[in-house]
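If you are new to this repository, start here. Below is one unmodified record pulled from the training split, so you can see the exact layout before writing a loader.
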Amino acid sequence: MQALGLRIDNPAQVRGWQELYAQIEDELDDPRSLALPDLSTLVTLANALVARSADEYHGWGDVVTFAACTASRIGEV
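And here is the target side for that same chain:
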């Protein structure tokens, strides 16, 4: 509703945050739920990254594979 050109309701009200919060809590309780299921999935992910990179640079696939297999963060890679 509008009165004199001003909005009465709040258009920036965040909706649905409870479901997102519950999902994040579940993931914290079971961190393995975020893990890739197998090596084949990791290879598929790395290949997709290479395919989307500039000049299909294969080094990015190596970075993803190394980081995933060693649990390294990007700053450590």
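Two things worth knowing about this chain: The two ends are 54 Å apart (CA to CA). Strands lie at 2-3, 6-7.
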